[in-house]
Amino acid sequence: MVDKICLPAVKKKSWKEIPIGGTIINSPTSLVNKTGAWRAFRPIWDKSKCINCMMCVATCPDMCIPVEGDKRKETDFDYCKGCGICASVCPVKCIKMEDEGRFTE
Amino acid sequence: MNKARPLTGAEAVAEAMRQIEPDVVAAYPITPQTPIVEAYAKYVADGLVKTETIKVESEHSAMSAVIGAAYSGARSMTATSSAGLAYMWEMLGIASGLRCPIVMPVANRAISAPLNIHCDHSDSMGARDTGWVQIYAEDAQEAYENTLLALRIAEHKDVLTPVMPCMDGFITSHGVENVVIHDDAPVKAFIGSYKFPFNLLDYKRPIAVGPIELTDYLFETKRQQVEGMAYVPKVLPGIAKELAKITGNEFDVIEEYHTNDADAIILTMSSAAGTTKTVVDRMRKAGKKVGLLKLRMFRPFPYERVAKALEGKKTVAVLDRAFAFGANAPIYSDVKSAPYDLTSKPKLQSYVFGIGGRDLSDFHIEAVFENLLKGKVTGKEEYINLRE
């Protein structure tokens, strides 16, 4: 019971051990930092209505919509932050934003 | 030794920039700095230097562009004064926080309001805690040589701190003096090539610059800045000696002019120091034991050197060319704390002078010395040439 309450201590580095100016040198840190965890709304894509115009692909700020050949694929939810731009620009409204709480525990 | 030529301080600083030949200059005009960049723009137009000049819409943008360039393998410079320095104030902290080795000549001009285009130190003094090294020039020759020195200090691998070489607006920036511009070859060899540990354009080693740091790391990153500043007095003598081989003048953080046996000393910076030298010479001829302690580097403040220079001295007047409203004037504040631990401390008197370009003449300085020689110390901030 006690073990579950006490979090393990994270060893923070001293001022002598970190790069100067706060510069991050082990880029790209996004490989381990999955910003999709910030999402409050999730884009639900209806593939049957999609015309593959690529508007959502071009306007996604996180480049989360992969393309194969001339068709888009499902959004990469590791990095989708739920901004809703894809739903907003879709000319056929095949993308709807829904509460993320419905999909996560 | 080359022949001296009549040059303004601004032209002399532009010559230093020509010899440094930065890769990028982004600047916005403001009196009295404008002629520096104008002269440099002519060098670019005439093909004497290969520099990418960016005509930005404000000083905030100027510093932003220079920071970005510095992180992209480009040696970068800008110049400013007064409200321009104020406008880029946010970016001063960015430049020093990101450890950019930027050199930015400042032609000191009063901060508004009311609007005034003439010399005082309220601009650079307002920025004294932004993490920039500050050195002050007495005349155009020093303005020129300090700019070269600044480059080597800023880019030293243990310092990596931006530097503001300052000169008095109009007095030095626009006044014509005989200046010796040293030969290009040895100066360029002294300047060397741009070395900076990071380059955003090096796609093989990707980095992220200027990230957020939360409560668990900002303190440590700022502690590194303290270390960078602490290295300045360590690396300075070596760099100064190297430059002295070319110029014949060795930079030191203070200059002691007849202070050894002086009964009365004036401590000040910039052109006022030059005028004070003339008065010291005249009064010494008349048998009065007076001296000048000229401060050349204001940040990092050389507490130990100032304390040592003032130890055992009788009376010292500190002449500040800026107010620090609600507190002791800037230089006075630091000088007063310097000899705190000494057993033999001089009596100190604070003077503020020269605000908004108000004249400081030889007879004003003579009056200050006479007061000091009489031991007249009021313990309050006094003013020179102010209509009470």
Helix content of chain B: 25-40%
Structural class of chain B: alpha/beta
Q: Estimate the strand proportion of chain A.
A: 5-15%
Backbone CA Rg of chain B: 21 Å
The largest sheet of chain A, given as strand count, sense and whether it forms a barrel, is: 2 strands, antiparallel
| Biggest sheet record of chain B | 6 strands, mixed
> Using DSSP, what is the number of strands of chain B?
15
The N- to C-terminal Cα distance of chain B equals 49 Å
Order of the strands making up the biggest sheet of chain A: 1-4
Q: Biggest interface in this structure?
A: A-B, 14 and 23 residues
Beta-strand portion of chain B reads: 15-25%
Q: SSE order of chain B, as H and E?
A: EHEHEHEHHEHEHEEHHHEEHEEHEHEHE
Features:
heterodimer; A: 105 residues; alpha+beta; two-stranded antiparallel ribbon; 3 helices; 13% helix; B: 388 residues; alpha/beta; six-stranded mixed beta sheet; 14 helices
Task: Present the secondary structure layout.
The complex is a heterodimer of chains A (105) and B (388).
Chain A: H1 2-5, E1 41-45, H2 55-59, E2 67-68, E3 71-72, H3 85-89, E4 95-99
Antiparallel strand pairs in A: 1-4, 2-3
Chain B: E1 5-8, H1 9-20, E2 24-27, H2 34-45, E3 52-55, H3 59-70, E4 76-77, H4 82-87, H5 89-97, E5 106-108, H6 122-126, E6 133-136, H7 140-155, E7 163-168, E8 176-179, H8 184-191, H9 218-230, H10 232-247, E9 254-257, E10 264-268, H11 270-285, E11 290-295, E12 297-299, H12 303-310, E13 315-320, H13 330-337, E14 347-352, H14 362-373, E15 382-383
Parallel strand pairs in B: 2-3, 2-4, 5-7, 6-7, 10-11, 10-13, 13-14, 14-15
Antiparallel strand pairs in B: 1-8, 6-12, 9-11
Helix pairs in contact in B: 1-2, 1-7, 3-5, 7-10, 11-14
